[in-house]
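ok here's Diaminopimelate decarboxylase, seq below lol
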Amino acid sequence: MDATPSPSAPLRPEFQQALQEALQRYETPFYAYDLTRIHSRVKALRQSFPRARLLYAMKANPRLGILRRLRGWGVGLEAVSLGEVLRAYRAGYTPEEVLLNGPVKTPAMLEELRGAGLPILGVDSMADLERIARLLPGAKVILRVNPDLPIATHDHLATGRGESKFGILAAEVPASVRRAKQAGLEFLGLHLHLGSALESLEDFQEGYRVLEALYESIGPTQVLNLGGGFGLNFDPAQVSEAAQKLADTFGAQLWLEPGRYLVAEAGVLLTRVWGTKRTRRNYLLVDAGMMTLLRPMLYGAQHPVIPLYEGPEVRAWDLAGPVCESGDVLARNVPLPTPKEGDALAILQAGAYGSSMSSNYLDHPRPLEILWNGAEWEVLRRPQSLEALLAEEA
Ligand SMILES: *Cc1c(COP(=O)(O)O)cnc(C)c1O
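and the structure came out like this:
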Protein backbone atom coordinates (compact mmCIF):
# COMPACT_ATOMS: atom_id res chain seq x y z
CA MET A 1 0.00 0.00 0.00
CA ASP A 2 1.28 3.48 -0.81
CA ALA A 3 1.68 6.22 1.76
CA THR A 4 -1.68 7.61 2.85
CA PRO A 5 -2.65 10.72 0.92
CA SER A 6 -2.47 14.15 2.42
CA PRO A 7 -5.86 15.74 3.04
CA SER A 8 -7.36 17.42 -0.03
CA ALA A 9 -8.76 20.07 2.29
CA PRO A 10 -7.68 20.23 5.93
CA LEU A 11 -10.06 20.65 8.86
CA ARG A 12 -11.46 24.08 9.61
CA PRO A 13 -9.45 25.62 12.50
CA GLU A 14 -12.60 26.16 14.57
CA PHE A 15 -13.54 22.50 14.17
CA GLN A 16 -10.04 21.28 14.95
CA GLN A 17 -10.09 23.31 18.16
CA ALA A 18 -13.48 21.90 19.08
CA LEU A 19 -12.01 18.42 18.59
CA GLN A 20 -9.45 19.12 21.32
CA GLU A 21 -12.30 19.97 23.65
CA ALA A 22 -14.22 16.84 22.64
CA LEU A 23 -11.15 14.75 23.43
CA GLN A 24 -11.26 16.05 27.01
CA ARG A 25 -14.88 14.97 27.34
CA TYR A 26 -15.33 11.77 25.42
CA GLU A 27 -13.57 8.44 25.25
CA THR A 28 -12.08 7.31 21.97
CA PRO A 29 -12.78 5.99 19.48
CA PHE A 30 -15.54 8.34 18.33
CA TYR A 31 -16.78 9.99 15.17
CA ALA A 32 -17.06 13.79 14.98
CA TYR A 33 -18.74 15.78 12.20
CA ASP A 34 -18.56 19.42 11.13
CA LEU A 35 -22.05 20.60 10.19
CA THR A 36 -20.76 23.70 8.41
CA ARG A 37 -18.80 21.51 6.07
CA ILE A 38 -21.85 19.43 5.13
CA HIS A 39 -23.83 22.59 4.49
CA SER A 40 -21.13 24.06 2.27
CA ARG A 41 -21.11 20.88 0.17
CA VAL A 42 -24.88 21.10 -0.27
CA LYS A 43 -24.53 24.73 -1.34
CA ALA A 44 -21.69 23.93 -3.73
CA LEU A 45 -23.73 21.21 -5.41
CA ARG A 46 -26.75 23.49 -5.64
CA GLN A 47 -24.60 26.11 -7.28
CA SER A 48 -23.31 23.66 -9.87
CA PHE A 49 -26.74 22.08 -10.47
CA PRO A 50 -29.26 24.85 -9.80
CA ARG A 51 -32.21 22.95 -11.30
CA ALA A 52 -31.47 19.52 -9.91
CA ARG A 53 -33.31 17.71 -7.14
CA LEU A 54 -30.81 16.35 -4.62
CA LEU A 55 -31.46 13.00 -2.97
CA TYR A 56 -28.78 12.26 -0.37
CA ALA A 57 -27.66 8.62 -0.43
CA MET A 58 -28.25 8.01 3.26
CA LYS A 59 -26.12 4.87 3.43
CA ALA A 60 -23.10 7.20 3.46
CA ASN A 61 -24.13 8.39 6.91
CA PRO A 62 -27.67 7.85 8.19
CA ARG A 63 -27.59 9.66 11.56
CA LEU A 64 -31.01 11.19 12.22
CA GLY A 65 -29.41 14.45 13.34
CA ILE A 66 -27.80 14.78 9.91
CA LEU A 67 -30.91 13.73 7.97
CA ARG A 68 -33.04 16.34 9.78
CA ARG A 69 -30.58 19.06 8.82
CA LEU A 70 -30.58 17.95 5.20
CA ARG A 71 -34.36 17.98 5.13
CA GLY A 72 -34.29 21.52 6.44
CA TRP A 73 -32.04 22.43 3.51
CA GLY A 74 -34.47 20.88 1.05
CA VAL A 75 -32.45 17.73 0.30
CA GLY A 76 -34.42 14.49 -0.27
CA LEU A 77 -33.16 10.98 0.47
CA GLU A 78 -32.06 7.93 -1.46
CA ALA A 79 -32.48 4.72 0.53
CA VAL A 80 -31.44 1.14 -0.28
CA SER A 81 -33.21 -0.89 2.40
CA LEU A 82 -36.48 -1.03 4.29
CA GLY A 83 -34.69 0.07 7.45
CA GLU A 84 -33.35 3.14 5.72
CA VAL A 85 -36.80 4.12 4.46
CA LEU A 86 -38.26 3.79 7.97
CA ARG A 87 -35.34 5.80 9.32
CA ALA A 88 -36.00 8.50 6.73
CA TYR A 89 -39.63 8.73 7.90
CA ARG A 90 -38.42 8.90 11.51
CA ALA A 91 -36.28 11.90 10.51
CA GLY A 92 -39.44 13.61 9.26
CA TYR A 93 -39.30 12.78 5.56
CA THR A 94 -42.53 12.07 3.68
CA PRO A 95 -42.77 9.16 1.19
CA GLU A 96 -42.60 11.41 -1.87
CA GLU A 97 -39.26 12.79 -0.59
CA VAL A 98 -37.69 9.33 -0.53
CA LEU A 99 -36.42 7.08 -3.32
CA LEU A 100 -35.82 3.40 -2.56
CA ASN A 101 -33.21 1.67 -4.74
CA GLY A 102 -31.48 -1.64 -4.24
CA PRO A 103 -31.22 -4.93 -6.12
CA VAL A 104 -33.48 -7.07 -3.91
CA LYS A 105 -36.92 -6.07 -2.68
CA THR A 106 -38.71 -8.93 -0.97
CA PRO A 107 -42.49 -9.27 -0.82
CA ALA A 108 -42.35 -8.71 2.98
CA MET A 109 -40.52 -5.46 2.42
CA LEU A 110 -43.00 -4.22 -0.17
CA GLU A 111 -45.96 -5.14 2.07
CA GLU A 112 -44.43 -3.24 4.95
CA LEU A 113 -43.94 -0.18 2.74
CA ARG A 114 -47.59 -0.28 1.77
CA GLY A 115 -48.43 0.33 5.42
CA ALA A 116 -45.61 2.74 6.27
CA GLY A 117 -45.94 4.94 3.18
CA LEU A 118 -44.80 4.20 -0.31
CA PRO A 119 -41.58 5.87 -1.46
CA ILE A 120 -40.63 6.21 -5.11
CA LEU A 121 -39.15 2.86 -6.13
CA GLY A 122 -36.07 2.20 -8.20
CA VAL A 123 -36.59 -0.88 -10.37
CA ASP A 124 -33.38 -2.90 -10.66
CA SER A 125 -34.48 -6.06 -12.50
CA MET A 126 -37.47 -7.59 -14.27
CA ALA A 127 -38.20 -9.67 -11.16
CA ASP A 128 -38.33 -6.44 -9.21
CA LEU A 129 -40.62 -4.85 -11.78
CA GLU A 130 -43.11 -7.71 -11.82
CA ARG A 131 -43.22 -8.00 -8.02
CA ILE A 132 -43.73 -4.26 -7.52
CA ALA A 133 -46.48 -4.24 -10.16
CA ARG A 134 -48.19 -7.18 -8.45
CA LEU A 135 -47.96 -5.97 -4.84
CA LEU A 136 -47.97 -2.19 -5.26
CA PRO A 137 -50.02 -1.40 -8.37
CA GLY A 138 -49.70 2.20 -9.49
CA ALA A 139 -46.38 2.71 -7.66
CA LYS A 140 -44.10 5.44 -8.98
CA VAL A 141 -40.95 3.86 -10.39
CA ILE A 142 -37.68 4.77 -12.05
CA LEU A 143 -35.71 2.16 -13.95
CA ARG A 144 -32.01 1.61 -13.40
CA VAL A 145 -29.88 1.23 -16.51
CA ASN A 146 -26.73 -0.91 -16.50
CA PRO A 147 -24.55 1.03 -18.97
CA ASP A 148 -22.03 -1.81 -19.35
CA LEU A 149 -18.98 0.48 -19.15
CA PRO A 150 -15.46 -0.21 -17.85
CA ILE A 151 -15.73 2.40 -14.95
CA ALA A 152 -12.42 3.29 -13.28
CA THR A 153 -12.73 2.61 -9.54
CA HIS A 154 -12.26 -0.24 -7.07
CA ASP A 155 -13.95 -3.45 -8.32
CA HIS A 156 -16.35 -3.42 -5.38
CA LEU A 157 -17.45 0.13 -6.20
CA ALA A 158 -17.96 -0.14 -9.97
CA THR A 159 -21.72 -0.61 -10.19
CA GLY A 160 -21.91 0.46 -13.83
CA ARG A 161 -19.85 -2.37 -15.26
CA GLY A 162 -21.61 -4.93 -17.39
CA GLU A 163 -20.50 -7.64 -14.94
CA SER A 164 -22.08 -5.86 -11.97
CA LYS A 165 -25.37 -7.04 -10.51
CA PHE A 166 -27.02 -3.65 -10.94
CA GLY A 167 -29.57 -2.39 -13.41
CA ILE A 168 -31.02 -3.54 -16.69
CA LEU A 169 -28.77 -3.66 -19.76
CA ALA A 170 -29.47 -0.77 -22.13
CA ALA A 171 -30.63 -3.05 -24.95
CA GLU A 172 -33.40 -4.40 -22.71
CA VAL A 173 -34.49 -1.05 -21.31
CA PRO A 174 -37.08 -0.06 -23.96
CA ALA A 175 -39.00 -3.33 -23.53
CA SER A 176 -38.76 -3.01 -19.74
CA VAL A 177 -40.21 0.49 -19.85
CA ARG A 178 -43.09 -0.74 -22.03
CA ARG A 179 -43.69 -3.57 -19.60
CA ALA A 180 -43.69 -1.22 -16.59
CA LYS A 181 -46.36 0.95 -18.18
CA GLN A 182 -48.41 -1.99 -19.33
CA ALA A 183 -48.22 -3.54 -15.84
CA GLY A 184 -49.82 -0.41 -14.42
CA LEU A 185 -46.78 1.24 -12.83
CA GLU A 186 -46.25 4.98 -13.04
CA PHE A 187 -42.93 5.16 -14.92
CA LEU A 188 -41.09 8.39 -14.00
CA GLY A 189 -37.85 7.94 -15.87
CA LEU A 190 -34.40 6.36 -16.09
CA HIS A 191 -31.69 6.00 -13.46
CA LEU A 192 -27.92 5.71 -13.83
CA HIS A 193 -25.48 5.27 -10.95
CA LEU A 194 -22.05 4.39 -12.27
CA GLY A 195 -20.28 3.58 -9.02
CA SER A 196 -18.64 5.23 -6.06
CA ALA A 197 -15.50 7.31 -5.58
CA LEU A 198 -15.36 8.11 -9.32
CA GLU A 199 -12.75 10.57 -10.49
CA SER A 200 -12.79 10.16 -14.26
CA LEU A 201 -14.75 12.67 -16.31
CA GLU A 202 -14.94 10.17 -19.16
CA ASP A 203 -16.86 7.67 -17.03
CA PHE A 204 -19.63 10.20 -16.51
CA GLN A 205 -19.58 11.33 -20.14
CA GLU A 206 -19.82 7.78 -21.44
CA GLY A 207 -22.60 6.96 -19.01
CA TYR A 208 -24.57 9.97 -20.18
CA ARG A 209 -24.08 8.90 -23.81
CA VAL A 210 -25.68 5.55 -23.05
CA LEU A 211 -28.77 7.30 -21.71
CA GLU A 212 -28.84 9.80 -24.54
CA ALA A 213 -28.97 6.94 -27.02
CA LEU A 214 -32.03 5.59 -25.21
CA TYR A 215 -34.03 8.78 -25.76
CA GLU A 216 -35.06 7.77 -29.25
CA SER A 217 -36.85 4.65 -28.02
CA ILE A 218 -38.05 5.91 -24.60
CA GLY A 219 -39.12 9.46 -25.43
CA PRO A 220 -39.73 12.23 -22.87
CA THR A 221 -39.82 11.37 -19.15
CA GLN A 222 -40.57 13.28 -15.94
CA VAL A 223 -37.28 12.42 -14.26
CA LEU A 224 -33.69 11.68 -15.19
CA ASN A 225 -31.72 10.38 -12.21
CA LEU A 226 -27.97 10.51 -12.81
CA GLY A 227 -27.01 9.05 -9.43
CA GLY A 228 -24.07 9.89 -7.19
CA GLY A 229 -20.52 8.62 -7.13
CA PHE A 230 -18.59 11.88 -7.08
CA GLY A 231 -15.12 11.13 -5.69
CA LEU A 232 -13.38 13.53 -3.35
CA ASN A 233 -10.90 14.56 -6.02
CA PHE A 234 -13.61 15.17 -8.61
CA ASP A 235 -15.46 18.44 -8.97
CA PRO A 236 -19.06 17.68 -9.99
CA ALA A 237 -19.20 21.09 -11.66
CA GLN A 238 -17.28 19.40 -14.49
CA VAL A 239 -20.36 17.42 -15.47
CA SER A 240 -23.09 19.88 -14.51
CA GLU A 241 -23.65 21.23 -18.00
CA ALA A 242 -23.71 17.81 -19.65
CA ALA A 243 -26.03 16.44 -16.96
CA GLN A 244 -28.51 19.29 -17.26
CA LYS A 245 -28.39 19.13 -21.05
CA LEU A 246 -29.18 15.43 -20.97
CA ALA A 247 -32.11 16.01 -18.62
CA ASP A 248 -33.33 18.74 -20.97
CA THR A 249 -33.16 16.29 -23.87
CA PHE A 250 -35.62 14.09 -21.99
CA GLY A 251 -37.67 17.13 -20.93
CA ALA A 252 -37.02 15.75 -17.45
CA GLN A 253 -36.17 17.06 -14.02
CA LEU A 254 -32.55 16.19 -13.18
CA TRP A 255 -32.06 14.15 -10.00
CA LEU A 256 -28.72 13.45 -8.30
CA GLU A 257 -27.91 11.04 -5.46
CA PRO A 258 -24.73 12.30 -3.79
CA GLY A 259 -23.52 10.41 -0.73
CA ARG A 260 -19.79 10.60 -0.11
CA TYR A 261 -19.51 14.06 -1.67
CA LEU A 262 -21.77 15.64 0.98
CA VAL A 263 -20.42 14.08 4.15
CA ALA A 264 -17.01 12.40 3.73
CA GLU A 265 -14.81 15.38 4.48
CA ALA A 266 -17.08 16.65 7.24
CA GLY A 267 -16.29 13.62 9.38
CA VAL A 268 -13.26 12.44 11.32
CA LEU A 269 -12.60 9.37 13.42
CA LEU A 270 -10.77 10.12 16.66
CA THR A 271 -8.54 7.45 18.10
CA ARG A 272 -5.77 7.27 20.69
CA VAL A 273 -2.41 5.54 20.60
CA TRP A 274 -1.92 2.96 23.33
CA GLY A 275 1.51 1.76 22.39
CA THR A 276 4.07 1.35 19.66
CA LYS A 277 5.53 -1.84 18.33
CA ARG A 278 8.22 -2.85 15.90
CA THR A 279 7.88 -5.99 13.82
CA ARG A 280 9.18 -5.71 10.29
CA ARG A 281 7.14 -2.51 10.30
CA ASN A 282 6.56 0.34 12.76
CA TYR A 283 3.12 0.07 14.33
CA LEU A 284 1.04 2.43 16.38
CA LEU A 285 -1.48 0.43 18.42
CA VAL A 286 -4.75 2.36 18.35
CA ASP A 287 -8.26 1.85 19.77
CA ALA A 288 -10.15 2.23 16.46
CA GLY A 289 -10.06 -0.59 13.93
CA MET A 290 -11.93 -2.41 11.21
CA MET A 291 -15.00 -2.57 13.47
CA THR A 292 -15.06 1.24 13.57
CA LEU A 293 -13.85 1.97 10.03
CA LEU A 294 -13.99 -0.87 7.53
CA ARG A 295 -13.09 0.99 4.33
CA PRO A 296 -9.30 0.46 4.44
CA MET A 297 -9.80 -3.30 4.78
CA LEU A 298 -12.78 -3.56 2.44
CA TYR A 299 -11.60 -1.38 -0.43
CA GLY A 300 -7.99 -0.57 0.35
CA ALA A 301 -9.29 2.96 0.99
CA GLN A 302 -6.63 5.43 2.05
CA HIS A 303 -7.61 7.95 4.70
CA PRO A 304 -5.34 10.85 5.59
CA VAL A 305 -4.30 10.86 9.25
CA ILE A 306 -3.23 13.88 11.28
CA PRO A 307 -1.67 13.95 14.77
CA LEU A 308 -3.44 15.95 17.47
CA TYR A 309 -0.26 16.00 19.58
CA GLU A 310 3.27 17.22 19.28
CA GLY A 311 6.30 15.03 19.59
CA PRO A 312 9.84 14.43 18.39
CA GLU A 313 11.14 12.62 15.31
CA VAL A 314 8.68 12.21 12.48
CA ARG A 315 8.75 8.79 10.84
CA ALA A 316 6.41 6.44 8.98
CA TRP A 317 3.93 4.45 11.04
CA ASP A 318 1.19 1.93 10.31
CA LEU A 319 -1.98 2.20 12.41
CA ALA A 320 -2.90 -1.20 13.87
CA GLY A 321 -6.40 -1.71 15.27
CA PRO A 322 -7.37 -4.00 18.16
CA VAL A 323 -8.98 -6.76 16.06
CA CYS A 324 -7.35 -10.17 15.73
CA GLU A 325 -7.12 -10.01 11.94
CA SER A 326 -3.87 -9.15 10.22
CA GLY A 327 -5.85 -6.97 7.80
CA ASP A 328 -6.98 -4.72 10.64
CA VAL A 329 -4.66 -1.85 9.72
CA LEU A 330 -6.30 1.55 9.26
CA ALA A 331 -3.47 3.26 7.40
CA ARG A 332 0.08 2.58 6.30
CA ASN A 333 3.20 4.73 6.07
CA VAL A 334 1.73 7.72 7.85
CA PRO A 335 4.43 10.27 8.72
CA LEU A 336 3.83 11.11 12.40
CA PRO A 337 5.86 12.37 15.34
CA THR A 338 6.61 9.80 18.04
CA PRO A 339 3.53 9.67 20.29
CA LYS A 340 3.22 9.24 24.04
CA GLU A 341 0.67 6.81 25.50
CA GLY A 342 -2.84 8.25 25.00
CA ASP A 343 -1.95 10.77 22.28
CA ALA A 344 -4.78 11.29 19.78
CA LEU A 345 -4.99 11.00 16.02
CA ALA A 346 -7.70 12.18 13.64
CA ILE A 347 -8.47 9.90 10.70
CA LEU A 348 -9.86 12.20 8.04
CA GLN A 349 -12.50 11.82 5.31
CA ALA A 350 -14.34 9.41 7.58
CA GLY A 351 -17.79 11.02 7.44
CA ALA A 352 -19.04 8.73 4.66
CA TYR A 353 -19.23 4.93 4.93
CA GLY A 354 -17.47 5.13 8.31
CA SER A 355 -20.00 4.70 11.09
CA SER A 356 -22.57 3.30 8.65
CA MET A 357 -20.29 0.35 7.92
CA SER A 358 -19.14 -0.13 11.52
CA SER A 359 -19.87 -3.46 13.16
CA ASN A 360 -20.06 -5.18 16.51
CA TYR A 361 -17.32 -7.65 15.59
CA LEU A 362 -15.65 -8.96 18.76
CA ASP A 363 -18.39 -7.32 20.85
CA HIS A 364 -17.03 -3.88 20.23
CA PRO A 365 -19.90 -1.46 20.88
CA ARG A 366 -20.74 1.10 18.19
CA PRO A 367 -18.85 4.31 18.89
CA LEU A 368 -20.14 7.70 19.98
CA GLU A 369 -20.99 10.14 17.16
CA ILE A 370 -21.03 13.89 17.74
CA LEU A 371 -21.75 16.92 15.58
CA TRP A 372 -20.14 20.36 15.89
CA ASN A 373 -22.94 22.81 15.08
CA GLY A 374 -20.77 25.91 15.26
CA ALA A 375 -21.55 26.60 18.92
CA GLU A 376 -21.43 23.24 20.70
CA TRP A 377 -21.12 19.49 20.37
CA GLU A 378 -24.40 17.64 19.83
CA VAL A 379 -24.51 13.93 20.56
CA LEU A 380 -25.97 12.27 17.45
CA ARG A 381 -25.61 8.77 18.85
CA ARG A 382 -24.44 7.69 22.28
CA PRO A 383 -21.88 4.91 22.47
CA GLN A 384 -23.64 1.58 22.42
CA SER A 385 -24.03 -0.09 25.81
CA LEU A 386 -23.14 -3.68 26.59
CA GLU A 387 -26.83 -4.20 27.43
CA ALA A 388 -27.83 -3.09 23.93
CA LEU A 389 -25.24 -5.47 22.48
CA LEU A 390 -26.77 -8.41 24.33
CA ALA A 391 -30.43 -7.35 24.06
CA GLU A 392 -31.61 -9.79 21.37
CA GLU A 393 -29.99 -12.88 22.83
CA ALA A 394 -31.75 -15.62 24.76
C1 LIG B 1 -24.39 4.35 -2.81
C2 LIG B 1 -25.24 4.94 -3.85
C3 LIG B 1 -25.16 6.31 -4.12
C4 LIG B 1 -24.16 7.23 -3.47
O1 LIG B 1 -22.86 6.97 -3.87
P1 LIG B 1 -21.68 7.97 -3.43
O2 LIG B 1 -20.47 7.38 -4.03
O3 LIG B 1 -21.64 7.97 -1.95
O4 LIG B 1 -22.03 9.32 -3.97
C5 LIG B 1 -26.04 6.83 -5.05
N1 LIG B 1 -26.92 6.05 -5.72
C6 LIG B 1 -27.00 4.73 -5.48
C7 LIG B 1 -28.00 3.92 -6.23
C8 LIG B 1 -26.16 4.13 -4.55
O5 LIG B 1 -26.24 2.81 -4.34
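fwiw The pocket of pyridoxal-5'-phosphate is lined by residues 57, 59-60, 78, 80, 101, 193, 196, 227-230, 257-261, 352 (CB under 6 Å). kinda neat tbh
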